[in-house]
């Protein structure tokens, strides 16, 4: 039986969610907008452009397109400056073990990320070769919770959406997987990710028999 295993990037494979947060927090502060970790949940998995709009909505603020572009550039430069020294140590716990296991079982693996910086991150951390397909923010027009990114990934892996399994740390990403009729697996807090079919604290909490069942069963 062949399934497709689709991994989100930020907050699932690498611990970059914190860098996104810090960069947005700085901008919110400059704009005089309160921005907490709780607000930040709304931004996870969401495109850069939409993220800025959400922050402006939170602060009831309107700015010109020119200013928006300025903030977007600043956000990305700040974020990228955090990634300069990035290496395999930024890979989250248990990720390698799961990728390795799926490879041994000949299961196709894809990346499904909203980020336009996904490829350099996979390269820097040395895990690009695990992925049979990479779909990121440069390949889609509709951001999560739209399922486009995951549907393209399943198509590239030549697997039906019902046979795809998605690992996600964001509410928007879980919703996208559910809309696509894929099996959604939340990585993180089970209260925040309650819409997911399963939730695990991290990949170390996922055992091999659970993965074997996913491979064997039709959409459980
Ligand atoms: C990620 C993050 C989001 C970020 C988005 C765009 O998505 O979760 O916080 O805003 O990508 O990233 P960039 O500014 O690098 O293009 P994912 O889907 O990998 O979690
Ligand atoms: Mg994410």
TrEMBL record:
Its cofactor is Mg(2+). It holds the Pfam family Hydrolase. Its EC number is 5.4.2.6. Keywords: Carbohydrate metabolism, Isomerase, Magnesium, Metal-binding, Phosphoprotein. It catalyses: beta-D-glucose 1-phosphate = beta-D-glucose 6-phosphate. Gene3D superfamilies: HAD superfamily/HAD-like, Putative phosphatase, domain 2. This is Beta-phosphoglucomutase.
